[in-house]
Amino acid sequence: MNPADLRYDKEHEWVRVEGDSAVIGISDFAQDQLGEVVYVDLPSVGDVLAVGETFGEIESVKSVSELFAPVSGTVVEVNDELDSAPESINSDAYGAGWMVKIKLADPAELDGLMSSVEYDAFVANEA
Amino acid sequence: MTEELLRTPLYAEHLALGARMVPFAGFEMPVQYAGIIDEHRAVRTSAGVFDVCHMAEFRVFGFEAFDALQGLVTNDLHKIDEMSKAVYTVMCDEAGGIIDDLIVYHTGDLEYLIIANASNRAVDAEWIAAHLPEGVEFVDESDRTGLIALQGPEAVRIITELSGEEPPARFHIAEARLDESIPVLLARTGYTGEDGVEIVCAASDAPAVWRLLLSFAEVSPCGLGARDTLRLEMGYPLHGTDMDRSIDPISAGLSWVVSMKKGEFIGREVLAAIKEAGPERKLVGLSVSEGVPRHGYPVLHDGVEVGTVASGTFSPNLEHGIATAYVPAALAEPGTCLEITARRKNVSATVVRPPFVTHTSLSA
Predict the structure, then answer these.
(1) A53 part of a folded domain
(2) Which CATH number applies to B280-364?
(3) Chain B residues touching residue A33 (CB < 8 angstroms)
(4) Which residues of B are less than 8 Å from A41 in CB distance?
(5) Could you tell me if residue A125 is inside a domain?
(6) Would you call A64 and B292 a contact, using CB atoms and an 8 Å cutoff?
(7) Contact B321, B288 (CB under 8 A)
(8) CA B124, B130, B131, B132 torsion-angle sign
(9) Was domain B1-279 assigned CATH 3.30.1360.120?
(10) What is the pLDDT of residue B2?
(11) pTM for the complete prediction?
(12) A104 Cβ contact list (under 8 Å, min separation 6)
């Protein structure tokens, strides 16, 4: 099932809290739905993410999906490996497939996210 | 009004293999099984099978069958005077618009088999039948005919094993028996750029043929998604996307299947005039720097929109986007720098002459 140490949103993104920062990626369910990822369009260091708004796009051969910010913050790191190996998102959605690391603007927003148990149930309903 | 989707004889096979199904040409078809890129690579490196049972098969017989078809298609059917030969062609209307692209096989004395696009079955059948003289019989065999494509560098070896003999030569068709029991026609043609065959069989035998092919570990089931990436890498056009009835074959880059050396055929005058004057717009290949180009995306030159993407996809072989688009003839030179607007940003696109991929089991 989905990692217990992460929090999730309805757009199938996960958040790993690291002190006052958070690492963001998409869930295993999301990568499976998308198919083989061929491009990811990510923000740059310094860009500001607003919760609920799009911060990038992820493309497979057949589809394009927007990435929605699960929490607000400023980008401090971007996973550049995804330029040459976007398929990491498919093979390791929770590890090598991480997308951006942000400095949290409002840690209270984390309370609005689902636990892994809640997310498992959410996915079971969607599928 | 929702119309019910048709199913090929292999529908249950696809479900059993866990295929993701989508509507296509009125049929419920598999778009992918393991994944588009995996399937694409399987065809380029080993072998893949495609359910193309939805396509149309027509048979035309009679003393005047040759003359009648020669007057209907643009290519010269004298190229298939030899029994068992096949030729790719388009069929145009009086305005030179492409009704469909198809392959004509010389299957017997006074007899021809035509394999055409599923999406144009009804239009083609009506058009051909309406233009045949008395005494030339037309039969739409599509419902009782199955078609399965086996393509890839291992395909010929596999079909040789299954049929007990070498398949016919490239662009020929021949009878065969698979597993010493199933009677089929093997056509050494395809839409992937790899060597292989298209297996014509009785619709009721399609599941058995499909399973025989998949009994080989080297063979992977492949869906419409991979079919599209494979054909686009080769620069093969898709009717409905790269051309349609509003477009002539000269503009579509298909001048090579329009023969002015033969006699009268529908559309000849218009096409001769376009060939003479040169088309105003041409279908070009585009090599894209970033992202996946998709149908309808604007194509720009110096910031001005000059066309839209016709076909677009990610090339698994090249690992970047590739596309086709109609642009003004002056911008059709390979090397011309254009841009494609992909949703929120512009990416650079360079005109290339297809095929995008050149080293395959057919062209190595």
Answers:
(1) yes
(2) 2.40.30.110
(3) none
(4) 291
(5) no
(6) yes
(7) yes
(8) positive
(9) yes
(10) 58
(11) 0.93
(12) A17, A20, A21, A22, A71, A72, A73, A110
- pLDDT above 90 (res B319): yes
Residue A60: its chain B contacts at CB < 8 A? Answer: 36
How many independent structural domains does chain A possess? 1
CATH of the domain at A51: 2.40.50.100
Tell me if A62 and B38 make a contact (CB, 8 A cut-off): no
Please give the Cα distance from B227 to B191 (Å, whole number): 8
On whether residue A30 sits in a domain, the answer given is yes
Taking the domains of chain B in order of start, what are their residue ranges?
Answer: 1-279, 280-364
3-state secondary structure of B340: strand
Q: What is the pLDDT of residues B106-150, one digit of tens each?
A: 999 999 999 999 999 999 999 999 999 999 999 999 999 999 999
Tell which of B20, B21, B36 to mutate to test the A interface (max A CBs under 10 Å): B36
pLDDT (tens digit per residue) in A22-37: 999 999 999 999 999 9
Residues in B touching A86 (Cβ below 8 Å): none
Chain A residue with CA closest to B322: the answer is A61
- What pLDDT shows up at residue B364? 60
Give every CB contact of residue A123 below 8 A, 6+ residues apart in sequence.
A2, A12, A27, A29
pLDDT in tens, B189-198: 999 999 999 9
Cβ contact B225–A61 (<8 Å)? yes
